[in-house]
Amino acid sequence: MNPAFDAIFERPENQVFHVVFYPDRIYHAQYLNATRSTRYEYVVHEVRTTADITVLKGQVKLDGTRLCNFLRVEYRAGRLVELSRQNGRLAHDTVKAWMRVEHQDPARSAEVELRLHLCRWTDSWQVELWETLEAPAGSAHHIQVLDQMGYEAPITCRPELGPALAEIKALRHVHLAFREPERDSLNGATIAAPAWDNNFLRSHQEPRDPTPSSHLNTIEDKSYLVDFQRGFFVDTKAVAPVRYRNAMMDSDNPDRDDRGGPLDNVIEMRWVLQRELGAQLVFFHEVTIPAGKVEGTHQHNGSEELYNFVSGSGIAHMGEHDDPALAAVPLVERHIFGVGVKQCRELPVRAGHVIFTKSGGIHGIRADDAGPLVFVAFLYHTS
Predict the structure, then answer these.
(1) What's the rounded Cα separation, in Å, for the pair 123 and 127?
(2) Residue 54 CB contacts under 8 Å (≥ 6 apart), including other chains
(3) Is the pLDDT assigned to residue 29 strictly greater than 80?
(4) What is the 3-state secondary structure (H, E, C) of 72-99?
(5) What pLDDT, on the 0 to 100 scale, is given for residue 296?
(6) How confident is the model at residue 187 (pLDDT cuts 50, 70, 90)?
(7) Domain 208-381 has CATH 2.60.120.10
(8) 3-state helix, strand, coil in the chain (%, to 5)
(9) CA pseudo-torsion sign 159, 162, 164, 169
(10) CA proximity to 272, closest of 232, 216, 245, 303
């Protein structure tokens, strides 16, 4: 990190950014495996975090001279610990991982299986992938670091990743999924069916088929994505929409329209950003509800979503007790997707309005007959 940032960061007028824009981990002192010896220095180029995974890429120096590039994976295993517990097992000393790295040059992309080791200093399972473990001619590794090196060790070298690590700045994506090891670390018993954390069977949407609600538009990923692209400029109107018929409605919902013609209850979603997002964010998209059409009223569990209305007008439905400030707003009965009939507040919405729904909250939208009604939404998993 450029030391000039220190002076900028500490200026009184910039104190607000300590709270609003929390500094990237690259700015802070970070425990890395070879730092137990002062002979080693890490130059971290970039850090990315998604869910409870952190990936760092950069360069390692030995005695002040560049040694090699490295990629470090840290995994806090919240989901995998939960799955292990459901199977009557505790967390293990090691975790296995499937990883695919995608390089700007496809010929340098590669796929490997790795072993991550529990690190008490970072409270995570981690591994460092070095471009080479060979010390320069006339030099040798420090014994405190050398004992961490080897195949499936905390510091390891995988030849398959060599081409990507050689040009690490052009490494674009890292795909990851994690599973329990082959043996229980407490009793040594074989684990016949190790549990996988593949991001809750994660999928994303692509406009492959214009048929409303086509299964061809759902792409199964079953992995986490760490994206090292630094910025995105998107013209949402250039993003082809995915169309959905009777979105989030049960078969007995009176708002359904299954006639199969142009008057069907079909809404459009332009999926602007999905797997590219970090932290717990799941998607950011633009929704268009044609005149008189409905996005079914539904309840969020384990996720939160924000709607920002940008054009048009319509009617929104929210849970009866979701926002106490709406106590005077009229109540109506609504069919809640997968839940049944509940009392909801019915209120008009237009451009400039925002609906924020926490886990357990309810929302749904109907466009006015003059439609369409357009809003943008982002959704994220709650911790």
Answers:
(1) 13
(2) 25, 47, 48, 72, 73, 74, 124
(3) no
(4) EEEECCHHHHHHHHHCCCCCCCEEEEEE
(5) 97
(6) confident
(7) yes
(8) 15, 45, 40
(9) positive
(10) 232
pLDDT averaged over every residue in the chain: 92
> Domains of the chain: which residue ranges?
31-197, 208-381
Of 67, 19, 5, nearest in space to 39 by CA: 67
> What pTM, to 2 d.p., does this model score?
0.90
Smallest Cα–Cα separation from 269: which of 335, 214, 220? 214
Structural contact between residues 295 and 256, judged by C-beta atoms closer than 8 angstroms? no
pLDDT digits 0-9 by tens, 277-329: 998 889 999 999 999 999 999 999 999 999 999 999 999 999 999 999 999 99
What is the sign, positive or negative, of the torsion defined by CA atoms of 188, 190, 193, 196? Answer: positive
Beta bridge partners of 74: 54, 126
In contact, 73 and 97? CB cutoff 8 Å: yes
According to DSSP, residue 188 is labeled: -
166 CB-near residues (< 8 Å, 6+ apart): 69, 108, 131
Tokens of 313: 């007008």
- Give the confidence band of 27 by pLDDT, cuts at 50, 70, 90: low
pLDDT cut 70: percent of the chain above it: 93
CB atoms near residue 369 (< 10 Å): 8
CA 121 → CA 98, 178, 372, distances in Å? 24, 21, 54
Q: What is the pLDDT of residues 238-270, one digit of tens each?
A: 999 999 999 999 999 999 998 888 889 999 999
